[in-house]
Amino acid sequence: MTTAPRLAPRFDSVLHYATNPTLGALPHFVTTFSKAVAEVARRDRVMAKLIDRNAPFRLPRPDTPHFAALAESILYQQLAGAAAAAIHRRFVALFDGDLSPAAVLALSARKLRAAGLSWSKVAAIRDLAAKVVDGTVPLHRIGRLRDEDIVTSLSVVRGIGPWTAEMFLIFQLRRLDVWPVGDYGVRKGYALAYGLKRLPTPKELQALGERFRPYRTVAAWYCWRAVSEQRKQAR
């Protein structure tokens, strides 16, 4: 991922989560995006300048159920936008408004394949559905889990790795302390913002992001904006 998706221009408030080793993710306090951004800017001058130059940080409330969002993520992998969108439309149309794990499992693999899905994506979508049904992936209560546990849970699904799980945390669950160090856009944006001669490795970036806790999502979002800035300047 090299740039953040286009998002509706509005602020919002979210529950910020603290973690408890026994109870998992617990709502700790309600914070606003503006407060989170202000704290990141206070801690780092470079990030403060990047924030000043760009649009306000925002994560709109998702209008897609968790299962449908994950299925869409799988379908879009390794495909150009237009091709992926066409396949996704045909896939959704198969279910007549009832895209659920049970509905996916009730449909034959050949019908999924006829909608344009590759056999590997058919297997991944069906694996996701099966693991939701049997409880391996507890989507019904996933919002109460810690970030780390969500990544672990989702990563057992064929076709879902840490990056997809982290994007789910950011854009579906709107978690504020996600630092996707394997994302090329975040690595590139960080290098651009801080004038580095090379991209930081994921391990290096992990350490560099520590100062932004518990609002690392904000820093990642503005790293994506740094990439967008470079593209605009190159036009």
Structural class: mainly alpha
Largest sheet: 2 strands, antiparallel
Elements, N to C (H/E)? EEHHHHHHHHHHHH
Order of strands, main sheet, comes to: 1-2
Strand content: 5-15%
Query: Roughly what percent helix?
Result: 40-55%
Radius of gyration (CA) equals 19 Å
Number of DSSP helical runs? 12
Low-confidence stretches: 1-11, 18-29
Let me know the number of strands. 2
How far apart the termini lie comes to 20 Å
Backbone shape: elongated
Q: Write down the overall mean pLDDT.
A: 89
Task: Looking at this protein, list some descriptive labels.
12 helices; elongated; 235 residues; mainly alpha
Describe this entry's structure for a reader:
The chain is mainly α and 235 residues long. It is built from 12 helices and 2 strands; from the N terminus they run ββαααααααααααα. It has helices at 33-43, 45-53, 66-76, 81-93, 101-106, 109-114, 119-133, 147-154, 162-172, 184-194, 202-208, 216-234; strands spanning 13-20, 24-32. It has a two-stranded antiparallel sheet with strand order 1-2. The longest helix has 19 residues, at 216-234. 31% of the residues are buried. The model is unreliable at 1-11 and 18-29 (pLDDT under 50).
